[in-house]
Specification:
Chain lengths: 176, 266
């Protein structure tokens, strides 16, 4: 193969993920980039890491760990148990959630379930069907958006908020 | 307060089943079936068992195709999408074999259509991780049509109806702060026809009633003639009950008396 072939490989071999455009942008035509990728696939240097919605292929070097979403963690968390209970029950109150989430060595109090329900109501994942009557009745909720197996969880973001424009720029590193 | 429904008989039965399959001896099959009538708390048990073992759960729908079934499991495991059912089964199998986390398939009776049950067997064969089928009462009988799947069942566990002992465990959760008398609890269990969710709903109603009256106990006298949540449809109304009664003559018709009649009456 040509010098360009090895030069292109040196440039992409440490990228976590790339497509033909990323190769082409490094100094070759689109056709050459596609041909090089075919050779790398045949040699086992790269693998198809994922297919985009439009069936576009993304590649990652075989010597790097797989890019993209990783399998759902097996670590039990209060949010994980509560989210799983919400996804299965669909309609629930905080007592239901706490009763179903107290398993696998995780402790979830009714107060914690209430707080999580309030947070997910604010984020639009669930909505209240009936309000609570303090001391008499719990609020009832319905799941609106089952976004997937990973539990939504509250985070505190550090950054700069400009009250003039409402723009928020997270600082480097993200969470506070 | 940290309420837990893990001690309920159904929940304990499913957790025990998952544990048996997970800790089976070498060479024994790794599939199992948990079955029972609709409304007996199978999904409740699945939720708690999934939280206990961090299991992957998919709830099959009637309209699913084999491709969608494989995609749903892939999504639930959190793997990126791949093209082709065969590639998806391989990816699922590899991940389940690595993690050894159980796969629980709820409403598995829908797998019997469109050959999706064969796909469940393929996944089990690829990973040898526990695969638990949860479905309706007839599921074990229906599975006999697939000898290769029937043979791979380690155990068949029936779901149990909610009884007084289960209901007593639900009282501190759904009627906390209220003493529910035995007569009311027995009436609730009878009316709920074995459903844990209906018992919980009726207990919450009893609590709401007692709290509303400022009482710390609830019994059948307090409940009165209020209807329980039974899950039964309303009774059929008869059209005849709504028709006006046909009358031959009007009772309030005033007949003016003639002069003679007036004379007689006076």
């Amino acid at each position: 193969m040509s010098e360009l072939f090895e030069q292109m490989w040196d440039e992409v071999k440490n990228l976590p993920e790339f497509d033909w455009k990323a190769v082409s942008d490094r100094g070759c035509s689109a056709e050459t980039a596609a041909r090089y990728i075919r050779h790398w696939l045949k040699d086992g240097r790269v693998r198809v890491s994922r297919l985009a919605r439009n069936n576009k292929r993304w590649y990652s070097p075989s010597h790097l760990p797989p890019a993209g979403p990783q399998p759902v963690s097996a670590e039990a968390t209060p949010e994980g148990n509560m989210w799983r209970a919400m996804r299965h029950l669909r309609q629930f109150n905080p007592t239901d959630i706490a009763a179903h989430a107290n398993a696998g060595g995780i402790e979830v109090t009714i107060e914690k379930a209430r707080a999580y329900c309030r947070q997910l109501t604010a984020s639009g994942h669930i909505k209240a069907l009936s309000k609570a009557i303090p001391g008499t009745r719990e609020a009832h909720y319905k799941l609106l958006e089952d976004s997937g197996p990973r539990a939504p969880r509250p985070v505190r973001m550090a950054g700069i908020l400009d009250p003039n424009t409402g723009a928020f720029a997270p600082s480097k590193g993200g969470a506070a | 307060m940290t309420p837990s429904i893990a001690p309920l008989r159904n929940v304990a039965a499913l957790i025990g089943l998952v544990e048996r399959v997970q800790e089976r001896a070498f060479g024994l099959p790794g599939m199992a079936t948990f079955y029972g009538p609709s409304g007996w708390g199978k999904t409740t048990a699945v939720t708690v068992a999934a939280n206990e073992y961090q299991a992957h759960v998919v709830q099959v729908k009637d309209c699913w195709t084999p491709t969608y079934f494989a995609q749903a499991i892939l999504r639930e495991i959190g793997l990126p999408p791949v093209r082709g059912v065969a590639a998806m089964v391989d990816a699922i199998g590899a991940q389940l074999a690595r993690s050894d986390r159980p796969l629980i398939i709820d409403d598995a009776q829908y797998l019997l259509r469109k050959r999706m049950i064969e796909l469940a067997r393929d996944i089990y064969e690829s990973c040898q991780a526990p695969v638990i089928l949860v479905g309706e009462e007839k599921l074990p009988q229906d599975l006999t049509r697939w000898e290769n799947i029937h043979n791979r069942q380690l155990a068949w566990e029936p779901a149990l109806a909610c009884n007084m002992s289960d209901a007593e465990k639900l009282v501190p959760i759904y009627a906390s702060g209220v003493d529910v008398a035995d007569d009311l609890l027995a009436a609730i269990v009878d009316a709920s026809a074995g459903s844990i969710r209906r018992v919980a709903t009726n207990l919450a109603s009893a609590r709401e009633l007692a709290k509303g009256r400022g009482r710390r106990n609830a019994d059948l006298d307090l409940w009165g003639t209020r209807p329980f949540t039974t899950g039964q449809p309303p009774t059929v109304r008869r059209v005849e009950d709504f028709r006006p009664v046909a009358r031959t003559e009007r009772a309030d018709t005033v007949v003016p008396l003639s002069g003679d009649a007036k004379a007689v009456r006076s």
